[in-house]
Specification:
375 residues, 9 helices, Purple Acid Phosphatase, chain A, domain 2
């Protein structure tokens, strides 16, 4: 099986054509189709898919094949992500010594998402993976049957540079694009919090996914793309397939020469939509507890809520037990009260006895009024 290596591609885009950009689809084909439909994607547009096509969602193989089919148009440019590269590596290196650990991973993946990329591959080859032995038995059939898919993933570029925008899954260690050619591939695919950690102001805007944008705000949780004009970095991963409030984002750049303030976005998720029946002023001090600062100390355990102390901020607050992982972690929770007007459309994330956690235009928070199902 071919191994992914750093590939930097220069592409000149024609003027007067829209540039659509998405990332981190994670096997959620329905969301990809939805954002393409919302953006009215056509043969007159360019489409960039900034890595992590597979895994974590229900339709990894179908999503991969759909992207391969899109590429036949000639105006679609997918890149490799860390998950794509890791899955190729794991399957290629699968052996007796690693089979048990690989199988344990599949079990964990099924607990979260009911299936995995490897399960889908095995199923098409007529296998059900029920043990480490099954993992090994299926491997030669999988590697032969899916050679075209594996070759496609392994051959994807790591970086695509255009006149004004550069696309890479996670980030660039070096400011000059060409200086990244000899880097370890995972330094470009697995750079966490690139927008925050990078010391560079880039000459062109770098568009990345990989890290859900919610991690950049410790007060308010939101999943919309973020533009850092100082560093010239655009981060677009909306947490699709990762967070319960996640969404698949798509940037719409009107033209290769368009300034960033002309960029718009569309998004997709599967959350049910309701109409707010009353106003809520919202606002005020708030906390967003998320990776990597998710450690808490449980001070008092209740039936629905627990009173906890957030270690990093020192703030004490009540958190629904559904957002706690044991007594020491809290996952992607905010106590922000969302400003709402009667008639606003709200996506329901979580229902408690005294209110709702909802999403409005990509921003997450509590709403304490009445909801009615949107027609």
């Amino acid at each position: 099986m071919p191994k992914p290596t750093v590939r930097i591609v220069q592409t000149e885009l024609q003027p007067n054509k829209r540039i659509l950009v998405t990332s981190d689809i994670h096997g959620n084909l329905a969301y990809l189709r939805e954002v393409l439909d919302k953006a009215d994607f056509s043969g007159d547009d360019y489409l960039f898919i900034v890595g992590d096509i597979i895994e974590k969602g229900p339709q990894s193989l179908k999503t991969l094949r759909y992207v391969m089919q899109l590429c036949e148009r000639g105006n679609v440019f997918p890149l490799i992500g860390n998950v794509d590269a890791y899955r190729l590596q794991w399957i290629d290196e699968l052996c007796e010594e690693s089979a048990e650990g690989f199988y344990d991973y599949l079990l964990k993946r099924r607990q979260i998402n009911e299936t995995s990329f490897y399960d889908g591959l095995a199923e098409e080859c007529g296998f059900v993976i029920a043990s480490p032995t099954d993992v090994l038995t299926a491997k030669p059939f999988i590697t032969e049957h899916f050679k075209a898919e594996f070759d496609f993933l392994a051959g994807l570029p790591t970086v695509i540079e255009t006149q004004n925008y550069v696309f890479v899954h996670a980030g660039l260690p070096e400011k000059r694009i060409s200086d990244n050619a000899n880097a370890d591939i995972f330094s470009l695919l697995k750079t966490d919090r690139f927008m925050q950690q990078s010391p560079h102001r880039f000459d062109k805007y770098i568009i990345v996914g990989h890290m859900p944008v919610g991690v950049y705000n410790t007060e308010i949780s939101q999943q919309n793309p973020i533009i850092d004009r100082k560093k010239r970095i655009i981060s677009i991963d909306g947490g699709c397939g990762v967070n319960r409030d996640g969404q698949l984002n798509m940037l719409i750049i009107p033209d290769i020469d368009s300034p960033v303030d002309k960029i718009s976005t569309v998004s997709a998720d599967s959350l049910p939509v309701f109409r707010a029946c009353s106003d809520q002023r919202g606002g005020g001090d708030s906390l967003h507890i998320c990776w990597p600062n998710f450690e808490i100390i449980t001070l008092e355990k209740g039936a629905e809520y627990s009173y906890v102390k957030h270690v990093q901020s020192g703030k004490r607050l009540c958190v629904p037990n559904a957002y706690l992982v044991g007594d020491t972690q809290c996952k992607d929770y905010t106590d922000y009260e969302l400003p709402v007007k009667s008639g606003d459309m709200l996506s329901l994330i979580f229902e408690a006895s005294d209110g709702y956690i909802v999403k409005k235009n990509g921003v997450i928070g509590w709403y304490y009024g009445k909801l009615e199902k949107a027609k």
